[in-house]
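Subject: complex prediction, re-run

Hi both,

The earlier run crashed halfway through, so I resubmitted it with identical inputs.
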Amino acid sequence: MTETDIAPPRRKRAPSKRSLETRARILDAAERLFAQGGFDGASMRDIAVAADVPVALVNFHGGAKEALFDTVVARRAETLARHWLDALESAKADHGPLDLRAVLDCFIRPYLNLAATGGAQWTAYARLIAHVSADERWRPISERCFDPTVAVFVAELIPKFPKAETRRIAGAFVFSISAMLSLATSRWRIEAMAGDSGEATSGLDEWADFLIDFCEGGFRAALAG
Amino acid sequence: MTETDIAPPRRKRAPSKRSLETRARILDAAERLFAQGGFDGASMRDIAVAADVPVALVNFHGGAKEALFDTVVARRAETLARHWLDALESAKADHGPLDLRAVLDCFIRPYLNLAATGGAQWTAYARLIAHVSADERWRPISERCFDPTVAVFVAELIPKFPKAETRRIAGAFVFSISAMLSLATSRWRIEAMAGDSGEATSGLDEWADFLIDFCEGGFRAALAG
DNA sequence: ATTATTATTGAACGATCGTTAAAAATAACG
DNA sequence: CGTTATTTTTAACGATCGTTCAATAATAAT
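This time it finished cleanly. Structure:
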């Protein structure tokens, strides 16, 4: 029982509708700005301006800055995890035991779909995850919000490579995750590297298929035998 | 001829040896702290303390903060590029025309080698590159310092996939780069995901081979046909 | 409608930020 | 050595940072 285990303050009344809207507006603004500039790149005042509220309200609804960051990341984590796990379960229900590609598909496609077609907030959240994933400082958040789901997928892959060490399967999955995040956060880089040539712009599904091809081939080649 | 094209101030005397040492100490400290916390995560005062100099000296030797960041990134860029291109040329000289794996090897291994065995400063620099690569804000630096070399490698790969669009080859290379950076910056994540099991820790070369296997397989699978 | 609780506001706190200016010290050159 | 350019130091500037507090307004509960 450390000092951090303080009991949450007891509420005596339900929060008003307006208050909930304000809170949501603040969290949305924080999500957008944190996604854009990371934790240090967004200030509480920037967030307040973006949410169109006085600065003190950000502290009131979000707590201290680190707590706000934590709240913003955690807010959609469960929904995203459910998307991931639902994809896994419904794929199993539809096609029986899953092969490697199907497992990768269940991880990559829901994320890219939400990032591209889930609205501006999910687009921001997808970028935010990249920040959390890149900075060791947020490892506790990662462990709490994402690692459990990732562990499910890794566990799903282990029996498919009976001769491979778990460490390597996890490594290949980390490679896949980083490639996935790079696709969501820096497609501009890819398009730029291909030159200004007017090649037809690819859609989401095309890139998703391409990425899944890449990861599947990577898994097979790196864990063969 | 814009206002930014100001002529560099003419020197009338050679810089002293002590001054060069101080400058190097400052750039080294900035490199370490920028690598750790990114541009916004490191303050000029932190850098000054780490370099054991007064704050004003950081400005004197490094200029404004953005210029300092730029200088730090550019400082080792040429050396790294030469490592990359030398690997390419000497591999060609030794084995004639290179296959896919050899090209990937020439890109991945020099980077990982420098990151792991090039000393603390190169380890920091390897992490710094990940920051530059992840933040669109530093795209000009990327374009100037790294994109030319990357373009050489992509050009080397194009004839190996005559039926593939350049955009896709570039995409697969970006996937490979992000996986490579993730290996240099977050091996802790991989080791953590594999569980606390006491599996023997892998060395650099083992992980490098593994990553190259992964990328080669990814390229072949994604660009097949 | 009254009251108790929550939400919002405006202002301010101390700390730290990047940057600059002017002396003081150091090193290079004639 | 004496002179001059360069480097280092010390101190301070204004701006912005995260956070807090006392007030006022708004709202749910009685």
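Residues 12-14, 16-19, 43-45, 55-56, 59, 64-65 of chain B lie near DNA strand C (CB under 10 Å from a C1').

- K.
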